[in-house]
Amino acid sequence: MKKGIHHHQIGEGVDTYLLIKNAKRGIASNGKPFLTLHLSDKTGEIEAKLWGISPEDEATFLSGTVSHIQGEVQDFRGMRQLKIKAIRPTSSMDQVKPDDFLPSAPRNKDEMLEEVTQYIFDMQNAKIQRITRHLFKKHQKAFSVSPAATKNHHEFVSGLLYHVVSMLQLAKNISSLYPTLDKDLLYAGVILHDMAKVKELSGPMATQYTIEGKLLGHITIMVNEIEEAANELGIEGEEVLVLQHLVLSHHSKGEWGSPKPPLIREAEMLHMIDNIDAKMNMLDRTLDRVLPGEFSERVFAMDNRSFYKPTFHEKPIDL
Amino acid sequence: MKKGIHHHQIGEGVDTYLLIKNAKRGIASNGKPFLTLHLSDKTGEIEAKLWGISPEDEATFLSGTVSHIQGEVQDFRGMRQLKIKAIRPTSSMDQVKPDDFLPSAPRNKDEMLEEVTQYIFDMQNAKIQRITRHLFKKHQKAFSVSPAATKNHHEFVSGLLYHVVSMLQLAKNISSLYPTLDKDLLYAGVILHDMAKVKELSGPMATQYTIEGKLLGHITIMVNEIEEAANELGIEGEEVLVLQHLVLSHHSKGEWGSPKPPLIREAEMLHMIDNIDAKMNMLDRTLDRVLPGEFSERVFAMDNRSFYKPTFHEKPIDL
Amino acid sequence: MKKGIHHHQIGEGVDTYLLIKNAKRGIASNGKPFLTLHLSDKTGEIEAKLWGISPEDEATFLSGTVSHIQGEVQDFRGMRQLKIKAIRPTSSMDQVKPDDFLPSAPRNKDEMLEEVTQYIFDMQNAKIQRITRHLFKKHQKAFSVSPAATKNHHEFVSGLLYHVVSMLQLAKNISSLYPTLDKDLLYAGVILHDMAKVKELSGPMATQYTIEGKLLGHITIMVNEIEEAANELGIEGEEVLVLQHLVLSHHSKGEWGSPKPPLIREAEMLHMIDNIDAKMNMLDRTLDRVLPGEFSERVFAMDNRSFYKPTFHEKPIDL
Amino acid sequence: MKKGIHHHQIGEGVDTYLLIKNAKRGIASNGKPFLTLHLSDKTGEIEAKLWGISPEDEATFLSGTVSHIQGEVQDFRGMRQLKIKAIRPTSSMDQVKPDDFLPSAPRNKDEMLEEVTQYIFDMQNAKIQRITRHLFKKHQKAFSVSPAATKNHHEFVSGLLYHVVSMLQLAKNISSLYPTLDKDLLYAGVILHDMAKVKELSGPMATQYTIEGKLLGHITIMVNEIEEAANELGIEGEEVLVLQHLVLSHHSKGEWGSPKPPLIREAEMLHMIDNIDAKMNMLDRTLDRVLPGEFSERVFAMDNRSFYKPTFHEKPIDL
Amino acid sequence: MKKGIHHHQIGEGVDTYLLIKNAKRGIASNGKPFLTLHLSDKTGEIEAKLWGISPEDEATFLSGTVSHIQGEVQDFRGMRQLKIKAIRPTSSMDQVKPDDFLPSAPRNKDEMLEEVTQYIFDMQNAKIQRITRHLFKKHQKAFSVSPAATKNHHEFVSGLLYHVVSMLQLAKNISSLYPTLDKDLLYAGVILHDMAKVKELSGPMATQYTIEGKLLGHITIMVNEIEEAANELGIEGEEVLVLQHLVLSHHSKGEWGSPKPPLIREAEMLHMIDNIDAKMNMLDRTLDRVLPGEFSERVFAMDNRSFYKPTFHEKPIDL
Amino acid sequence: MKKGIHHHQIGEGVDTYLLIKNAKRGIASNGKPFLTLHLSDKTGEIEAKLWGISPEDEATFLSGTVSHIQGEVQDFRGMRQLKIKAIRPTSSMDQVKPDDFLPSAPRNKDEMLEEVTQYIFDMQNAKIQRITRHLFKKHQKAFSVSPAATKNHHEFVSGLLYHVVSMLQLAKNISSLYPTLDKDLLYAGVILHDMAKVKELSGPMATQYTIEGKLLGHITIMVNEIEEAANELGIEGEEVLVLQHLVLSHHSKGEWGSPKPPLIREAEMLHMIDNIDAKMNMLDRTLDRVLPGEFSERVFAMDNRSFYKPTFHEKPIDL
């Protein structure tokens, strides 16, 4: 079996099928049009330039299609880039389909949905349980495939669900150490905190922000949704307000998008758990390709740091 | 007619009825209990200390009661303070009632409500008009007496309504100069932007933040209310989203409580109009007592500046 | 009549005369020289690149000359750019002159000067009036054509005058609502606040900062000018100091160039009026080309925001 | 058994023995001397003032002695304070000793030392294990009783050890979820990160910063210690450098005392684990006394927030 | 000869004449009036409280008079304070006069003026020399006694002159090491940079900011003065502009009061020299009283740091 | 003798030998490989691009070799760049060697070492002297050729030594003016403060950060070295701690890399002296090429300012 695109080192040759996730036209400094392609397979993504294109090329290499590409991975200002030597579009003869080339979560979608369901099932507080279940059911379909972001972390099919399940496991482990934490509240906070990403983002393919996402954002949308759910279910009581506060405050600071900071124990913990899972996801993907004794690419979302892999750490697995 | 408490200079004697808006017990550095009183009449407020109190005093000088007080206005670290020389509680014989001693807006409440109604009546866009009217009617009673804040600006009975009417006049004048502004949107934004202060604050007497106010804040509450209003009225379309955005962004920056900055022309203008009216209210009240050629008390909410009244400006009116 | 360059959408063809406001030589990444051209007509400006130029081209396409250009408007990293397909210099045969291609204020210069004169005429305080009139007369010629800035807002012929007249109208409207404002002081502040831009900037064509502008700045230069004017006119009294303070503080904060923050009521209002007019000018020009339902280019001077035009707003006029 | 001082509500009477952890002389605003006492028992600490003291009082109520005190818990500017009604020194007749009144960790010291030893025993990497064990042995005595800070969190006898053990448990749980983490490195980082607090702080009674603590700080001292340990043990290799980096970067940012940010996966995780345990400790102690439906005192070290205990949460245990 | 007030340690008795530099009435927390006195002799200043004063006391212990005081130096929240045990006003019999009790520069005024004159005399550039000499002559009288500030550094009689002479010596030494520096420009910058303090401050006794000082500040006033001087002397040329820039930029950043940062080599050096002399003055005065092995009071103007005097450094001289 | 590369103006031709300090491969926007060369001679450095290279070119124009180059100095976005017209490698026939083309300090290395030795010889405090001498001897060889940085200032052979000697002269001059300064401490601080750059940087040719440099930094490494030196020499006493503090705090603020701010008089002065010498070095090199009446390139490390050379200043020397 072939090695995925994510695992190619600088200097390695590439001869494989890749999905064009996104194709954008530009004008080179010599005045000629070119395409910037975001190419992917299951394992990840890489950027490439297609220079000196004809109008036919533009009409052929469209977002959402699969091409066969030969080339070489190169270094461009500290980032990997694929230099294309040959490219051809695919036909039915090639027997490839776009969905097989989208990066997606490393776990099975239905298994993860089942796991979330179990956490909801175990809740003791009926109000929290009913609101969470209601919203989970309402958005389940989009929720099960949505990425958690357009870039930075969990930006793949089912990324949101994978992020939530990892956070639930963290929540379970940590609340076993700090018994004052209200597990129901914390689990509900985890399940709901990013749920409105299904409205803020346009879905798993060519993900971008919706108008509602830009003008309101997923935090405000979700607070609305909780209000509406409580109304529909006829639920009153402070649980509604507190769940809204958990969602509202999970980015922790005004300048990061939360109009109120966490003012409840579980709200503070929700923010810290979110942080851990996002950062571990970024670090794992960044250090995956780095050899022991070397520094990684810069990670913009982590203060632009370049991370080091100690010489006494394992080499990356050669797939 | 007697001069109001707001207009007393340092060194002037006081011999009048005053409402105890707020009484708070403390322990002096000699170990004895004392009361910190916030005293007010129609014209404003002043702080006073009642030293060496007995348990009976504590039971007598309660928040919400009117007392007769003799004393002198003094300077305490650059702020005015009333030194009490004699104080007695009032009885029915005194023929005074608390409501007559609360500072309130300089304009008639019903007249102002009428003026807002007229602005709504003039709107062209039916969706914007119906949502605004619906919410105005729903909260009209509390809206008509609520202060706009607990301190800093418009912190008096009907302060919120007075602030809104002043902003509507500004909006009308300014939109006559910049014809690209959508008047309907701007007026609706003005009327709705702070409306949820009726839920965030506890009302005009002894005003404080509610739990909902502290955990969600008036901006988020109001965005919820617009959603609910649109649902109840069966209104769809981008107007709902845009009105929510105007409310959401009116504090302009994340660190000031707006999770999204203004991204629509009228949202930017709403923020600037809000700013002008709040600052002019603070400046007028601050400079009111200042003599030409002197500097004012420091104004905390305006970067702690101390403002100067030029010698060629009018003296304050001696009431 | 032909549509101006400001109104061309991405993808539209161009076949017209344009002024080369500025031509700058650069070296492309293939090592060959090219020109970056800022092209304009009355309606606005667009950037273009002229690739692979010869020494003759360099000597031909000079700043301040008019060329005939064929090409297409394209998108370059979210900004509009004109792709030149054919360009030729003009001769006397073309009957075009540079001045007709400079963007300028939408109102008649003399009419605006007249309007400023009227505001000065109406002042009650003789000292303020005399200083303002003296400086207005002294700089009238340059003042009537100067742009208000090299970029961002009012960066066109008579932009400074247009900005001042708009602010005077705002000042008039707002001071009718807040009667504590001293109209004389506010009007004088508006007229004088940016007047030293005539010394800070090099004039309407190929505008750049002068050495004096870079080492002292228009604020300090203008404070000097007021001092000098008062000396020449033999005027003493606090009005001189207060006018200097208004100019000195109109950028509001040290990090924005004002060594003192506004400490006088009218100084605070001057800053807010300046802000409103600058932002409305930027917003109008930015949203002018945007279709309903779309986001604008990013506006650097407004925190790099991209603004939205609601779907229920008018389409831009098709000229 | 009597309720501890930590659990007294505002208004409750006190009649008990308390340790004077710290006694500081001051001059009241009436010119008379007084003592500010920090009083404690096993459960916590409270401040009190002793007014109008004589020279004998000063010589009697010394730091480190136990007194018998009657009084009442009162509110002073939002903080609890004990109003002393009667106080007498104790003699051998009272059969009390200071050590029994120092707040200390809720777990047995030797049990915790044993637990740390087990974590060291389980390490696979011999270099990491030897350095950690060496330093743990070297400082074990002071380490076992040192507080983790002078205030804010874990500021009690064995607070440092308790903090380290909690973090080890967190590290174990979290690394079971993220298998890319190097457990040896993470455990060693946890054990060593604050170890130099034994040199930075003066010990568990009347804790203050040493001169070395003020001029170098525990981070720099510990990096030195690791260097020295490696030299003494004759250990070479990148493990030494990486352990130093973990200690050096555990405050995460320059302005928080770390000259380098975390640049290794385990360094980032160490910082996050430290953060979780410190914050949970502060939250637990703060919310311990708060009744459901009320807000806590402000917590300075957590951005001065005041936290809310939901009405549907358990009441605090009445001891 | 008696030891000056600056050199008294905590706990030492005082029995001496002191000048009341400033007397301010306040109300104690027991409701009684008291005086806050700033007392000084040649060596420095100390604060004291006079409790429970009568109206006669108020009329007796006025600013600008000398009293005979017995008391003790005490610690008040980390600052020294004089506890007054006995105080009496002085009469002609005491043969003391206020001027002898004002702290002043450690060097002779006329000698220092002579030294400045010599630096001016040595200048090569006639334009710079003439402007500097003109302004030095014009303000010489006030300049020779003015403090350099109201607090923080050089806040004593002739403090400004002493600061300037020290900076001239620094300038001379440093420019001998960096020959690219223009000595004339640097010396002129030193002499002029703070000269307008003579207008910004009210003089050496009870120093406070003037209205002009508050509304314009010494930087802007001095730039005006240079302009005026050049006009009067008929001097043209870039020297005038450059001298204005040096004064304008000497605080280095907008938020510190300089609308332009240093853009000329000598402007940058001027800022650094100013910084060195101000900080050394603060450090010397702060560490003067500190014993080896101890930390100083906090120095607000130096980021609130508390400085350490090493044990191997000399003890302060016992006068 | 030929003019060095540092002194060529924009537009001047070049025909000379140059060292390739650094050659880096890139991909141009037309897809072809190119080399970015950093070329130097004794006087300085210039960047150049070699377009459209063959594999042979890559193998020929290696870092550390000398080539003969013809070309022209051009302006690229405000920075100088060398446009290469012809390039050929050198052979033994050319009689050139790389070392002769490295920019280096303007003073003789051995003379400077001698000067440092003299400062150490003159120290009075034996502990300070012995530690300083020990470390100076230990690192003398690398210390004598190391640059002080990879860019910004003193980035040439022996740059560190040159920087230290300049600072010693400053320290001597300044401490003659402020007699409270401990000369021994200050000199030792100067000599040691950046000494660990010999471990943080990889040496004078193709200078880059080492792993130790990235993970610990020269400040922490040097504090370790002082500890070790004191141990080896058997020196105890506060001098060791204080020297460590001087090194630790010399960047002054946490965000600039110092975990403790200067808390000792000499530490504050060390920071200021370091600042002066670094800035004068940057200014001299920047203004060296600037003609009177013009502004320099922007200096990134000095807040990105562009500096002005007055018209009345000398022209740069034409070598």
UniProtKB/TrEMBL annotation, chains A, B, C, D, E, F:
<dbReference type="Pfam" id="PF01966">
    <property type="entry name" value="HD"/>
</dbReference>
<feature type="domain" description="HD">
    <location>
        <begin position="163"/>
        <end position="279"/>
    </location>
</feature>
<dbReference type="InterPro" id="IPR003607">
    <property type="entry name" value="HD/PDEase_dom"/>
</dbReference>
<dbReference type="InterPro" id="IPR012340">
    <property type="entry name" value="NA-bd_OB-fold"/>
</dbReference>
<dbReference type="GO" id="GO:0031125">
    <property type="term" value="P:rRNA 3'-end processing"/>
</dbReference>
<dbReference type="InterPro" id="IPR050798">
    <property type="entry name" value="YhaM_exoribonuc/phosphodiest"/>
</dbReference>
<keyword id="KW-0269">Exonuclease</keyword>
<keyword id="KW-0540">Nuclease</keyword>
<dbReference type="InterPro" id="IPR006674">
    <property type="entry name" value="HD_domain"/>
</dbReference>
<dbReference type="GO" id="GO:0004527">
    <property type="term" value="F:exonuclease activity"/>
</dbReference>
<keyword id="KW-0378">Hydrolase</keyword>
<protein>
    <submittedName>
        <fullName>3'-5' exoribonuclease YhaM</fullName>
    </submittedName>
</protein>
